[in-house]
Specification:
The chain is α+β, with helices and mostly antiparallel strands and 341 residues long. The chain is 52% helix and 8% strand. It is built from 17 helices and 4 strands. Strands 2-1-3-4 form a 4-stranded antiparallel sheet.
Length: 341
């Protein structure tokens, strides 16, 4: 590692002569550019995808010249009340890593170094879905082969009425398929046709996989038609599968029409995966009215979640300042405020 000033994680990775990528894995899988991550590390902007007041990231890196497999770190750092990265925590993490690895960021680890790194309090243990989504995305992005589970998932999703038992489908296979839908028109067309008829044991994990990947327009349109069905499970799964399209006007209009009658699960999905729709003040106001009808614990959790989002917070504070909230919402906020004081 070159002798130079290291004050950020980005500095450390660059000094180690690595090619690296940063991904948010807390809300939905999203790559963060090196420039944006540099701004986050210098507190020039809030972390864009906070979850429970934390930044949950994956760092994928590989030495620029050495022939070795890539390394993958899963990390979580606290955010302050403004959504900015907690620099004391980030600096402590760097101290841990530099003490453990010294100048050999991509060198082979000794048992002692591995134990030192494992004692690091900022390590994140990702869920099976988070890990599968990232693996599928990276393999596809780098034109690498999918997992051994891909062919079984592909075969079932193309022909669900065939003799293949859906219980033989691996979770990684569904994520591998989801990551390739922009290149595989045949599979996305089949999913658009069969999504509602897949058994719940396939449809729900498929929806969870689609949350993290881009989908083509014809699949988006088919999912939009399912949003207003009477079956609430179909609606919830369709909402999740539409996560990557939540900044599109057509999708925002459809979700706006749903919010008033959405159940608790659907309102949670909207905040967690489709939050860009809440940047529009009318939709945000409808959403606040809807969550004010939920129990107090869930209202508090959802309100605190959305007010932490940098793209929603200004509109939410504006609604509060202009006293444009309904009486039930105002009462719920007064109760929450009294608990905080």
């Amino acid at each position: 590692m070159a002798e130079q000033s290291i004050t950020t994680l980005g500095d450390f990775l660059k000094a180690g002569q690595t090619d690296y990528q940063i991904f948010d894995i807390g809300r939905r899988l999203t790559e963060i550019s090196q420039e944006q991550f540099d701004a986050i590390e210098h507190q020039q902007q809030p972390y864009p995808y906070p979850i429970a007041r934390q930044a949950q990231i994956a760092v994928l890196f590989q030495h620029k010249s050495a022939e070795q497999p890539p390394y993958l770190w899963f990390l979580q750092f606290p955010l302050d009340e403004r959504g900015l990265l907690n620099l004391a925590a980030r600096n402590q993490y760097l101290e841990y890593v530099i003490n453990a690895l010294g100048h050999e960021i991509t060198g082979e680890l000794t048992e002692e170094q591995q134990q030192q790194l494992q004692r690091n309090p900022y390590l994140l243990t990702p869920s099976e879905t988070q890990r599968a989504a990232l693996h599928a995305h990276v393999q596809c992005q780098h034109n690498l082969s999918p997992s051994i589970h891909f062919e079984t998932a592909e075969a079932y999703l193309l022909n669900p009425n065939d003799s293949l038992d859906w219980q033989n489908i691996g979770l990684q296979g569904l994520h591998d398929v989801a990551a390739r839908l922009m290149q595989r028109n045949d599979i996305s067309t089949a999913i658009a046709e069969h999504f509602a008829s897949y058994p719940g044991g396939v449809r729900s994990p498929l929806a969870a996989a689609l949350e993290h990947q881009s989908i083509p327009a014809h699949l988006r349109n088919a999912l939009l038609e399912l949003i207003n069905t009477e079956d609430s499970e179909f609606t919830t799964d369709a909402l999740r599968a539409l996560a990557s399209t939540s900044d599109e006007p057509k999708v925002q209009k459809q979700i706006a029409s749903l919010i008033e009658n959405a159940n608790a699960d659907q309102l949670v999905v909207i905040a967690a995966r489709l939050w860009p729709v809440l940047s529009e003040p009318k939709i945000l106001n409808s959403y606040l009215n809807a969550i004010s009808k939920l129990d107090e614990t869930l209202f508090d959790a959802l309100f605190q979640d959305i007010i932490a989002l940098p793209t929603v917070r200004p509109q939410l504070l504006s609604l509060i300042a202009q006293q444009q909230l309904s009486k039930p919402v105002q009462q719920a906020l007064n109760r929450l405020k009294s608990q905080v004081q």
